[in-house]
Each structure stands twice: as structure tokens, then as C-alpha cells.
């Protein structure tokens, strides 16, 4: 185990904000994790777990020890059951599943981050969420200092939410097991995806065709964090009552929405775009010119600058539509 002091985290958060950890340890195995936990306990340091850094709003200075989860490895069991370690890159794992002839996560291609962060946010795209395929999650309970296993129900998955998100700082996810399929189970619930596939003449697309089409769609609208700092979707799509939706629809006939339980899920990007924020730039932070749901950082700024912009957007949407937007990335540390 290698303990680094005053270690820069600027390259480990996709927004590219400057940040320094008091102590930093890369975790390559569960044995490393146990050793790091013992170190933190002996030094009376608070533990902060960092995965891919793609869905966080990082503080300039982090006291305590940051554990960077880099546990690698994928195991394919019988019946398309797959166990993948938390340090694997999510998109690379999706590509691996396609190469293995598996189906179930192809529409979640190009989502940034690592596998270990996927259950926390219950990541999803184009109508598919992690909870649709998750069998169980293995994690280390920092409170009771033991490894525990959560089945799908115990994870308490919800829209961009889970038990792990609601109990920050308690669990360190080390492994996720997913039930995929040998036969295509692709369901194109989103019009943009189904239209793109139809243009290719694909009415019954293969997982690989869905995978490649999703990549093309995302690359058209979403900036590469390696080129332009961003955290992907910055706001959750809000869910409103049917009555509220009908009121909005009368005023805005082209409003984009999808059924969600007893209500309707509104496209936050559409709301932000129509409110005039798309392409807005204020110094080194702004709203992406092709996807209004993405806030960007060109470099050299501070996290508070982005948060102030986000709050102004939230106030604008609330005033215009009577809708409250919730920020999707989490503060780090919490």
C-alpha cells in the first residue's frame, strides 16, 4: 500500500477542478482496502471513496484519506451471469459484454465512470437502468468493518438513487454482479434511439447495433470530458403530476416528457434549452451548446462558480415552469 500526501485530484474528476487530498491511496484489491481502512483508523482519518470522478463536485481541499478504487477483473459465469470488479471502466465493460455476445446493458454505452459507482447512482440511459440487470452488490461496511452482500431489493434502487447514495460514507463497493442475456433483450423506449435505428433499417436491432448507435448519439450531443470538463447530465429529469404536466403541455405543446409511475418525467434538457440557457458561457463555466443538460468547465475555475451558475438555472426553471430541478452530481466529500 502506497500512501501519498497532499496528492492532486485534478486529473481524477471529469470537471477538471483543482483539488488536493491530505492523503491518497490507490486500492487495487480487497486486501489493499482492508489495509487502508486500518491505516485511516490508526491515524484517526476520515475515509472518502473516489471512483471514476465522473459524477462529483469536488472540494478544493479534502482532509482525511481518499481511497481511489481500482480493483479490476471480470468473471463470466453460466447463464450470462457476470461479476465485475468496481475498478473496471463502465463503458469498457459494456463493450466487453457486446464482445461476449451478451445483451442487457448496451443502451448504457459511453456513460462515464467506473462500475463501482454505477449502483450508487443507479445509472441509466435510453430507458435502461442498472437496477434492471443488477443481481447483487458486494461492499465493505466501514461502520461494522466487514464485507456485506446486497441483493437487488436490498439496494433500494430508485431513479438515480440507491441505499448507497442515501448512506454516504458507509459502504465501499468492490464488486457488482449482473444478470445479462445470451439473446437480445434490447428495448428501444426512447424516440431518438428508435428513430436512429429505424433510419438504418434496423427494426429488430442486435445488441451491437444498439451499442454503436447509442455511442454515435451520445457523441453528437455530449462533450468528451477529456476535451471539455463536464460531469455528464448535471440535472435529473424532474417528475411532475399528470395535472401539472397537462398545464405545461397546454402552454408548451412541444414539451418533451415520458410516463413515470402516476406522473410524467420531463426532459430537463428541453426545459433548460427553452429557457434560453443553452450555449450560455460565463467565464470558464457554461452550458454546453449542443446539450443544455450538461454544464461545462474550460479550466482554471473554482467549483463555486459552477454551483452559482447551476443555482441561477434552477431559479429560472422554477420561475418559468414551476418545476424544481435537482442536481445529479454529488458533492465530494459529502
UniProtKB/TrEMBL annotation:
Its EC number is 1.3.1.98. It is found in: Cytoplasm. It is an enzyme of class 1 (oxidoreductase). Keywords: Cell cycle, Cell division, Cell shape, Cell wall biogenesis/degradation, Cytoplasm, FAD, Flavoprotein, NADP, Oxidoreductase, Peptidoglycan synthesis. Pfam families: FAD_binding_4 (PF01565), MurB_C (PF02873). InterPro entries: FAD-bd_PCMH (IPR016166), FAD-bd_PCMH-like_sf (IPR036318), FAD-bd_PCMH_sub1 (IPR016167), FAD-bd_PCMH_sub2 (IPR016169), MurB (IPR003170), MurB_C (IPR011601), MurB_C_sf (IPR036635), Oxid_FAD_bind_N (IPR006094). One of its GO terms (biological process) is cell wall organization. GO terms for molecular function: FAD binding; UDP-N-acetylmuramate dehydrogenase activity. Pathway: Cell wall biogenesis; peptidoglycan biosynthesis. HAMAP family: MurB. Belongs to the MurB family. PANTHER family: UDP-N-ACETYLENOLPYRUVOYLGLUCOSAMINE REDUCTASE (PTHR21071). This is UDP-N-acetylenolpyruvoylglucosamine reductase. It comes from Neptunomonas marina.
Amino acid at each position: 500500500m502506497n500512501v501519498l500526501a497532499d496528492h492532486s485530484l485534478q486529473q481524477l474528476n471529469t470537471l477538471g477542478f483543482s483539488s488536493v487530498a491530505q492523503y491518497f491511496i490507490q486500492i487495487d484489491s480487497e486486501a489493499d482496502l482492508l489495509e487502508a481502512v486500518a491505516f485511516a483508523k490508526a491515524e484517526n482519518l476520515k475515509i472518502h471513496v473516489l471512483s471514476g470522478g465522473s459524477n462529483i463536485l469536488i472540494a478544493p481541499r479534502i482532509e482525511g484519506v481518499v481511497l481511489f478504487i481500482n480493483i479490476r477483473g471480470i468473471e463470466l459465469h453460466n447463464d450470462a451471469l457476470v461479476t465485475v470488479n468496481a475498478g473496471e471502466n463502465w463503458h469498457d465493460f459494456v463493450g466487453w459484454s457486446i464482445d461476449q455476445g451478451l445483451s442487457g446493458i448496451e443502451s448504457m454505452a459511453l456513460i462515464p465512470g467506473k462500475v463501482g459507482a454505477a449502483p450508487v447512482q443507479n445509472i441509466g440511459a435510453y430507458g435502461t437502468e442498472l437496477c434492471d440487470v443488477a443481481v447483487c452488490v458486494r461492499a465493505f461496511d466501514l461502520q461494522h468493518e466487514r464485507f456485506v452482500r446486497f441483493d437487488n431489493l436490498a439496494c433500494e434502487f430508485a431513479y438515480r438513487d440507491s441505499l448507497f447514495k442515501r448512506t454516504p460514507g458507509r459502504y465501499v463497493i468492490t464488486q457488482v454482479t449482473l444478470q445479462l442475456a445470451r439473446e437480445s433483450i434490447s428495448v428501444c423506449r426512447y424516440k431518438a434511439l428508435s428513430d436512429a435505428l429505424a433510419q438504418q433499417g434496423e427494426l429488430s436491432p442486435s445488441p451491437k447495433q444498439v451499442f454503436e448507435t447509442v455511442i454515435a448519439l451520445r457523441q453528437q450531443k455530449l462533450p468528451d470530458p477529456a476535451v471539455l470538463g463536464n460531469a455528464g447530465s448535471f440535472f435529473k429529469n424532474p417528475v411532475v403530476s399528470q395535472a401539472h404536466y397537462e398545464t405545461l403541455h397546454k402552454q408548451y405543446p412541444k414539451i418533451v416528457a415520458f410516463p413515470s409511475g402516476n406522473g410524467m418525467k420531463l426532459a430537463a434538457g428541453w426545459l433548460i434549452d427553452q429557457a434560453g440557457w443553452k450555449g450560455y458561457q460565463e467565464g470558464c463555466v457554461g452550458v454546453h451548446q449542443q446539450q443544455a443538460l450538461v454544464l461545462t468547465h474550460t479550466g482554471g475555475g473554482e467549483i463555486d462558480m459552477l454551483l452559482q451558475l447551476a443555482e441561477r438555472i434552477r431559479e429560472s426553471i422554477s420561475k418559468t415552469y414551476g418545476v424544481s430541478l435537482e442536481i445529479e452530481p454529488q458533492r465530494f466529500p459529502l
